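ASSEMBLY PREDICTION REQUEST
Request ID: AP-0331
Submitted by: J.K., bench scientist
Number of chains: two
Total residues: 1001
Priority: normal
Notes: Please return the full assembly, not individual chains.
Input sequences:
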Amino acid sequence: MATESFPLADATSDPLVGGGDTPPVEPGPGERKRLTKWQLYSRRFVRNRPAVAGIVIFVLLVAFALVGPLFAKYDHVELDFLALSDPPNPDHWFGTNNAGNDLYAMVVVGLQRSLLIAVVVATGTTILSAVIGTAAAYFGGRIERFALFVIHFLMVAPTFLLLAMMSNDSGGDWKVIALVLILVSWFFQARTIWTLSLSLREREYVHAARYMGVPGMRIVLRHLIPNIGSLLVINFTLGVVGAVMAETGLSFLGFGVKLPDVSLGSLIGIGASSMSSAPWMFYFPAAALTLLTVSMALVADGLRDALDPTSAAGGRA
Amino acid sequence: MTTPVLSVRDLTVSFPSEAGRVDAVRGVSFDVAPGRTLGIVGESGSGKSVTSLAVMGLLDENARIGGSVTFDGEELLGKSDTQMSKIRGNGLAMIFQDPLTSLTPVFTVGDQIVEALTIHNSRMSRRAAWDRAVELLKLVGIPRPQERVRSFPHEFSGGMRQRVVIAIAMANNPKLIIADEPTTALDVTIQAQILDLIGTAQRETGAAVMMITHDMGVVANIADDVIVMYAGRAIEQAGVDTLFADTRMPYSIGLLGAIPRVDKAEKQPLVPIKGSPPLLVDLPDACPFAARCPIAVDACLAAEPQLLAVEGAVDHRAACIRAEEIRAGLIDGEPVYPIPEIPTSSLEQLPREDRKPTLEVENLTKTFPLTKGAFRKRKIGEVRAVKGVSFDIREGETMAIVGESGSGKTTTLLQIMDFAPQADGDIRIVGTSVTDIKGGRAERQLRRDVQIVFQDPVGSLDPRMTVFDVIAEPLRTVATPTAEIGPRVDELMDLVGLDPAHSDRFPAAFSGGQRQRIGIARALATNPRLVVLDEPVSALDVSVQAGVINLLDELKVRLGLSYLFVAHDLSVVRHIADRVAVMYLGGFVEHGDVDAVFDDPQHPYTRALLSAIPIPDPVKERTREHIVLTGDLPSPTDEISGCPFVTRCPLYQTLDPEQQIRCESEVPLLTGRPGVHVNACHYR
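STATUS: Completed
Returned structure:
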């Protein structure tokens, strides 16, 4: 085919194909168009090899966290006094710590904990930032001024410190940590979304809905938020990375998840102190953490390329 | 015959895309002789712009170009970008569509003209270049060129910027000027100035002009030869008179039939071309127009017709196997396109006074404050966007507001849609005054009666909602029972000529005209009494535009609707409206029945507006008197004590000094026959 002699073009930037005015072919323009939209995204995503590697790694990690406990020979709180600070061996695949905990079990549980916190936090921040950002832009006036005041205040406040204090008070409950993480990480995204929604607010379909008498909040939920969907997907994936990092950072410093509960961060924290005597204590959780964040970052990168928000110019993102 | 400046042979351009190879231009050949103007017309996606970009060597790197382009004896295809840079702007100049973006905002216009001059002529001294820049600005009619040469682009209006662009194009005495829709973004009065100016530029430099446009009127006005393009090919090629008088290819006939004419009073339905152009991917070897052609026969699908000379004509060629049978738009004595029937309304028998008003606007005023200062906003003046406008619309009537951009017509419309309370006037919709509206429930109740259709068919539909949801939205807003929504949406889609089975698709799957129909269906969902139409057809191609106009006409009659129609295109207004108001700088200057206003325009501004519209008839166009207005719209922030039109008025120039004083000091009121035809001029 002649197509192959060309570098495949970015379809959304091609005025003849991606442009909103492309006349559909009769018959059955609908099926054809709608299919290509999703095919297009997946094709563009798949073209980004690192992103595909990222998604594979991420799926494997999730699978590991879910089915890993089935293979574990020990519980993560169980102490094996016969194997203190053992290096990896057939009985303890990842070795043990100085109290005799099985590191494999701990990594699996820690990964579960870290993933759970990350997903909860990313979901929470995405929803919160989307609603606040778009509502502020749509309603304008006092609501907008108040929302922006809060956002700008949080931007200059030392939130990580607040986070550390609050989570320390809670005694390391992961639910409290997740909640606090949401509260201190939604505002940067909200501000980006606010800026983007300012232009969305002036779109004719938003005017049209207003002139139909559709209530304001419904316009925000039905017209504004779906149209920044691609940004939200990307924010979500990056949010997972950010939340994992923040949670690990906290736990590493000792303000996060506390024993007997473990997370990747607390494991790394403990492992770092015994780097020279028992390096496996550090390397296994650190590897899990690196794989998790790198894979999500790659996926986010691929998604951003595939759903480039500028393609919304043609009417669809 | 003189040797052509530009000779294009069998030009092909294709782009890669996710859907396959797009053949945007498929074998186009033409010559442009020095001093002649070639008009290339076609709808969006016909390949006309791609052709011009291919000639200029400005296509993306991923485009594949074949054939040959010879400019001044030199083959252009295959030249590197550096080699092309020496030719572009020197022998070959280009005028782009959007004057707002084709000048760099951070340099003065003088700098930009000087750059164009010195880059191709390094021996030219800076001083000489500046002098030439001033001379060029003077030539293109910029007042006070000595001072203005140091101004930045944002200090010029759109029309003035286009003049600067033309000055840059003329800078190096090019042999060929390519103008890609140079007037599409401009108002009609400015368009007339710019077309005049391109003619001047052509005479000054002796250049050939290649004019790309979608407007048959512009072609009739300026071109010597015409190429009609469709689906990447030239389908008819002839001298301008021949093409308009003896059109052979059905598509060209359709294009001409689909345009509303400002010079025709009788209400004949427009003739739309059904369907939409084919996607240029994997085209079969058949006439690409066959699916839309009313006289297609089986042989049309056998092979793609070649562009062949029409019998008995030297330079008239058409790509239609039935070209010989077609004479002046008729085939076997019948028109090629059957004229659609539009029902007439029983309301029309009723005299206007006896019909109920659906919208009454009294003394509508809107001012925007101008503020300055970063911290504390100080009010330093105000923009008077609308100044005391009054009118009413009766049942079954279409009222049009026409005016140039900045005249306040859209603001008027948005004020009505916002239900903005008036300090010194009132807006009444079907008898309900907007000042009486308290609370969301009452507002929603009133919104059922008034709905809006927007200009942009792409932007007015939420791309994330299916067509069903789009049309159902107003129904859900007024709490229609869910069981009734489905049948009502089907009914509406049927009403606007769409297949209800397609309601689960997204707007992106529809073409521009179909999307506008969806917008109309949405507006009709709540059975409104008044539909506000904000330039509903100006973003559509002419062949599609005709279908939408006919639909609006038909719906008005069938549903007894009233329309408030805002447009800048007077031909469309003449076709669709019953009454018309001409707006200038926030106020009406003429208002009355559409035939009275168009046949006997009184106000000098209306006269100028009407004469500025190019008529798609080269003979008429040449003999017609054009009133070309000088200058631009004054700023709406200025305090004007007299008639706002004084600065541009041709009549004012002919008055004696005492009469002139009256124009300058006294605001003219709308006088004449109230309700039939009034105008705001002291001396008309």
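REVIEWER COMMENTS: The radius of gyration of chain A is 24 Å.
SIGN-OFF: pending second reviewer
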